[in-house]
Amino acid sequence: MSVLNSNVPEGPLKDKWTNLKNHIDLVNPANKRNIDVIVIGTGLAGGSASATLAELGYNVKAFCYQDSPRRAHSIAAQGGINAAKNYQGDGDSIYRLFYDTVKGGDYRSREANVYRLAEVSANIIDQCVAQGVPFARDYGGQLDNRSFGGVLVSRTFYAKGQTGQQLLLGAYSAMNRQISRGKIQMHNRHEMLDVVLVNGKARGIIARNLETGEIERHSAHAVVIASGGYGNVYYLSTNAMGSNVTASWKIHKKGAFFANPCYTQIHPTCIPRSGDYQSKLTLMSESLRNDGRIWVPKSKEDAIAIREGRKKPTELSEDERDYYLERRYPAFGNLVPRDVASRAAKERCDAGYGVNATGEAVYLDFKAAIERYGKEQCQIHGHKNPSEKEIIAEGEKVIEAKYGNLFQMYEKIVDENPYKTPMMIYPATHYTMGGVWVDYNLMTTIEGCYCIGEANFSDHGANRLGASALMQGLADGYFVLPYTIGKYLSNEIRTGEISTDSPEFEKAEQEVKEKINFFVNNKGSHSVDHYHKQLGKIMWDKCGMSRNAADLKLAIAEIKALREDFWKNVLVPGGADTTNPELEKAGRVADFLELGELFAKDALNREESCGGHFREESVVQDGEQKGEALRNDEEFAYVSAWEYTGEPSDAILHKEELEFNDIELKQRSYK
Amino acid sequence: MSGFLSSSIGRKISMSLSAIFLMVFLLQHFVINFTSVFSEDLFNSISHFMGNNILIQFVMQPILILGVIFHFVMGFVLEIKNRNSRAVGYAEYDGSANSSWMSRNMIISGAAILAFIGLHFYDFWIPEITTKYIEGDTSGMINGNFRYYEELVHKFQPLWRVVLYCLSFILLSLHLLHGFASAFQSLGVPSMRNKIIKTIGNIYAIGIPLGFIFIALYHFAIH
Amino acid sequence: MNLTLKIWRQKSSKDKGGFVEYKIADISEHMSFLEMMDVLNEELITKGEEPVVFDHDCREGICGSCSMFINGEAHGPDRGVTTCQLHMRKFKDGDKITIEPFRAKAFPVIKDLMVDRSSFDRIQQAGGFISVNTSGNTTDANAILIPKEDADLAMDAATCIGCGACVATCKNSSAMLFVGAKVSQYALLPQGKVEGKERVKNMVAQMDLEGFGNCTNTGACEVECPKGISLDNIARMNRNYVGSIFGS
């Protein structure tokens, strides 16, 4: 029997959450005033949780490394948020959203969590509208929906291409209300550097004031980690520059199991890297694939000529182009799921058909769509025998209405006009499905320590569907954690204020200070970025879109060696008692260097292909699906939860077996 | 209501209300002056009416003076506060990249207009008040004729004064080119990018000062 | 390309600060402005000097962290972009680029090019919200019908990223575009109207308290705003403010 207890309530799937809510212990309002909760991170999950906990009456101490809660990286989410509202009457339901999410996650998520997510999804939309989130509306004044990520219903709510921003500002406004009431103590420009355990319970944190460099102790009856994903382990990703794994990793080192670190989503439609100086990758909405056709040249000579600038893509005839997604997946074509599209692009580029100077780009071409829409428009307007030019002008108008802002963004970055020449895209790390293991109540394996949002592992299995990240963050923060945390806190009403003078705080603070002193005093020779870039390259080359045992073993050894070098030769200029971004980065990269190894270890252990995790050894051997990902439900239908024991390589694997009672497991097929 | 005039928006609104009042005054002043171009008699009779009507002299005139003083004092108060809200200035500041010269230099055009009003008071208002209320001559006559037209023409004989008047009106024009729409914007009418308000504003801001310049040049030239 | 950078260096809020010139070579025109700064910082680190501190995070123009005043303009010479989206192709070989922090009394410098914009947070805390608790049983989202035009205008106002370029670029250091945008978002939505009067009064009072200057409608903020927030939002705020004081 595993040490892991997921605490999923008994009863039929659809009643579990209701039953739990009906029977959960509540904390008397008078007692809530005496209970403190620390929340790390102020994105959708942390922001919504802080606001809601404060509304309930708890004293919340919220922390973010940015200068304002409003800048958390949830703000960059573009597409939308799913909810089973069925406003369009197209057959959507809680069950269908649940089903799509489990299937999309390639049957590696916890059924009960996902069902609960689908259940509360509709409440999120109500709540956000009440807060003043300006979702898109139709001419009748009702909320508009779109279909997203290849699902069969229109259940995605959106606010232009800035849904994440608007939802975050909604949560931020709810936080502001509580900050002004004094119920949230907001600590901006603060980074959590360790969790403090007293008698096995999470009782506080050690944080660094990033402005003054001061090391601070903060105590609470419970600690909530909502610090987001760890995609920056790849150095280049669509995450913010500051996004990091530190909070999650620190609790992992103190006893929280880390689950499925190898589940990473590589998003297919990002703007390609243009050179070695590149610091970050920019995502463009997946919706572009609705109208764009993806191709590379059929011949390597053409690819080389294009890379060297001797040929232009527009000079290639239809016969000279390889629309490889349409060729390989005739049924879904350019609309195959994210992981499939990403791997296919990598396969072509690895084979030498990449089209930009770095050889890592494929074309996303709107010419056919422009012509199709153009002809349609001319027809509608009764324009007989339109010229080629007129058709294109009309078609471009349609494309502009649909994707104008994305095209503009592309042009700003790449300096090419995507109406006239095909866009270049390449996959980039975007989201991490893995994270801190939590039970049904979102509690980690440390008592009193919770983990919500992208930082936890729970809802997306091995692959996340479009427009589900925002849904999960807000579901956890607004509607799940505020209930489930009560179960734990109801036993804390007699605890009284937690002192920060205990030996446990003393020790934790000492350790943090020692590490900081090491960094600022180590007279090394390489900058932090030097190591981060190297780590990123190992991760991308060997633990990226396609993985095999030999490479993963190499990666483990290389990361370990890199880590040792880092601790010898890292150079951190500046002092500890001042604003010092290099010092901040050093601490974060130190944690990535450990996580990276566990990541590779987890990927090596999982000898199957599922969702974002593709093992070259686990593919369909023959038939129509030959070469496609092959899941192994017999042996791997479990969550890998890793226990820290001192070195990432010595981490102990605990398995949470996944049971699917309400869903039949199927292999995905897009042929 | 309390604190309205100490709030930023309250002050903005009071600036714009006084500005609109002054623009109305300027319009009527122009219309009256313009009559001097085509009818000496009409000009004289209106001038006499304006100079002797109790309502205008003892109600409107003090309000106007207060309005002028308020607009200037508040303008300077705001300018000082605005300057103080940036403790360390920029080494390089490219204002022309994003705004008009007029909008950034209302205090300069305003100060020039203030200086002009000083001259104008010295030229017309002080002699007028002296004649009427100190010497007690409210007849408006000199040598059996109305004196107003003569005085006007007389003032526009020296070239330096005509030049000074013209320059002042150019600065007034610059002030109004921004001020007209700005006044409405402050009152809550989205004006700064509104074509209709902008066009009316431009006609007013160029037309009225140009008219005043025309009057000055006309009298300089034909007499 | 080769460039000369004239950068404001200031050790702390108490330090006086001053300009330091740096030469930088082999900059690609495809780099973003911040990537050029990364190259400079990497050079400084290797030389054992302290790198230039500046705020930045998402590097895709939405978080509002980055805040540089480049050659006399907030976010530099391009339009509709934040500093992180500005690319080096906007500059020429041999250019001298002056880089300063966003300056305003209400945005004190923390270090080098990093400023403290918490005054914006405090303005929001004064009323930039709708008082609704999280319950899961607010009315159904479609129970409130909102005309598309109002929803779109509210969205346009809500796209403000709170970067502070409006304040930095305004000759008066006025925050009215920022406050106007937030007031407008709620004023345009039925949910926000209930607390509308108190909101505009409180937010304007806090804005004044923070020491921002007054608006003289130069329109510079709208031009430099990376999200193109309209001046109409300021007019709407003025209108609402008058209504809150004199309305019944």
UniProtKB/TrEMBL annotation, chain A:
Its cofactor is FAD. It catalyses: a quinone + succinate = fumarate + a quinol. InterPro entries: FAD-dep_OxRdtase_2_FAD-bd, FAD/NAD-bd_sf, Fum_R/Succ_DH_flav-like_C_sf, Fum_Rdtase/Succ_DH_flav-like_C, SdhA/FrdA/AprA, Succ_DH/Fum_Rdt_flav_su, Succ_DH/fumarate_Rdtase_cat_sf. The active site is at R338 (proton acceptor). It holds the Pfam family Succ_DH_flav_C. GO terms for molecular function: electron transfer activity; flavin adenine dinucleotide binding; succinate dehydrogenase (quinone) activity. Belongs to the FAD-dependent oxidoreductase 2 family. FRD/SDH subfamily. Residues 532-670 form the Fumarate reductase/succinate dehydrogenase flavoprotein-like C-terminal domain. GO terms for biological process: anaerobic respiration. The lineage of its organism: Bacteria, Pseudomonadati, Bacteroidota, Saprospiria, Saprospirales. Keywords: Cell membrane, Electron transport, FAD, Flavoprotein, Membrane, Oxidoreductase, Transport. It is a peripheral membrane protein. It is an enzyme of class 1 (oxidoreductase). GO terms for cellular component: plasma membrane. Residues 36-470 form the FAD-dependent oxidoreductase 2 FAD-binding domain. It is found in: Cell membrane. This is succinate dehydrogenase. Its EC number is 1.3.5.1.
TrEMBL record, chain C:
Keywords: 2Fe-2S, 4Fe-4S, Iron, Iron-sulfur, Metal-binding, Oxidoreductase. Residues 151-181 form the 4Fe-4S ferredoxin-type domain. PROSITE patterns: 2FE2S_FER_1 (PS00197), 4FE4S_FER_2 (PS51379). InterPro entries: 2Fe-2S_ferredoxin-like_sf, 2Fe2S_fd_BS, 4Fe4S_Fe-S-bd, Beta-grasp_dom_sf, Helical_ferredxn, SDH/FRD_Iron-Sulfur, Succ_DH/fum_Rdtase_Fe-S, Succ_DH/fum_Rdtase_N. GO terms for molecular function: 2 iron, 2 sulfur cluster binding; 4 iron, 4 sulfur cluster binding; electron transfer activity; metal ion binding; oxidoreductase activity. PANTHER family: SUCCINATE DEHYDROGENASE, SUCCINATE DEHYDROGENASE IRON-SULFUR PROTEIN. This is Succinate dehydrogenase. It comes from Portibacter lacus.
